[in-house]
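Q: Predict the bound structure with NDP.
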Amino acid sequence: MDFKGKTVLVTGAGKGIGRAIAEGLAARGANVVALTRSEADLETLKAEIGCRTIAVDLADAAATAAAASEAGPVDFLVNNAGTTALDSFLDVSVETMNHLLAVNTIAPMIMSQAYARDRIARGLKGAIVNVSSVSSFIGFADHAAYCASKGALDAMTRVMANELGRQGIRVNAVNPTVTLTPMAVKAWSDPAKSAGMLNRIPLGRFADPKDVADVVLYLLGNEAGMINGIAMPVDGGFMIN
Ligand code: NDP
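A: Predicted complex:
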């Protein structure tokens, strides 16, 4: 996986999985454009890997569209930024549902439209990876808005793969299980709940951010040149249980 001379836009690059993706890409020669909300994270990442940085709240569609055009042109796109909320189906509010859809589904749509329009206009091939979740496939209690937003992201990924694939732009999703990042600590801090999840993972551990980042890099690169439209679990076998 060699990204020398390639420019890659990574959303949510400040922390967790997105940061591991940005670090992995930079280590393989990529010029990273890091886009996230917290300026402080962008500063530390810039000091670490020398990336270009853009601060934006992806819940704001107009600001996201402006950031997408500021970020381009790039060779590859990783839609990684995401957020969660812990509400049962009966309690989830319209505001929460709208917020998670805005960040987890609509922002990837806006970013991908800008990316793909540029690639197509210039007659160039490309690749997009959307960071989804096993929550797309499983009805986890208290994750109504999150599961819905990731299910929608996977559905959109398939349409993108169908339409954009015909223009030489491959689009795939990765679907991690619990991955040990700040967001996972928020969602899985209850030991009883995490023990139940761990028991369902044959490999006996949660994912590390690098486990997910390595798969994202593979799907972006030439080695995955015939892979288009998949939702790839990165889950230690969780999905077979
Ligand atoms: P983290 O919370 O560790 O990092 C998320 C990153 O996305 C942060 O840099 C965060 O910035 C950014 N982000 C979140 N909301 C916004 C926003 N509105 N605008 C701009 N940037 C934003 O999460 P993870 O690394 O765990 O998650 C990365 C992706 O992986 C997400 O899509 C998540 O759904 C998915 N995932 C994670 C799993 C896990 O167990 N960790 C499991 C399965 C999927 P800031 O901190 O400034 O808000």
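A: The CA atoms of residues 78 and 129 lie 5 Å apart.
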